[in-house]
Specification:
about 80 residues, mainly alpha
Length: about 80
């Protein structure tokens, strides 16, 4: 329970991405309905893409940690 072998941050990151994406999509839809097809709605959709890129960059660091752990474990077995 108190070891850092399994990280919870990737799960939290996934949840934060879903929440962020939901808010951006809802804001974009509301913008399209209230103001019509304008730059603000398109900007919100572009922000959703950049949010994905941001969260993927964070997840890459955690995946690298997992892969390094596997490599270290395989080298220890030899």
């Amino acid at each position: 329970m108190f070891s850092f072998d399994k990280l919870i941050t990737p799960r939290i990151i996934s949840a934060l991405y879903i929440i962020t994406l939901a808010f951006l999509v809802i804001a974009a839809v509301l913008t399209f309905f209230t103001r019509g097809f304008n730059a603000a709605g398109i900007m919100l959709l572009i922000m959703a893409v950049f949010a994905r890129i941001f969260f993927e960059c964070i997840m890459v660091t955690f995946k690298n940690n997992e892969y390094l752990q596997r490599i270290a474990e395989s080298l220890e077995k030899k």
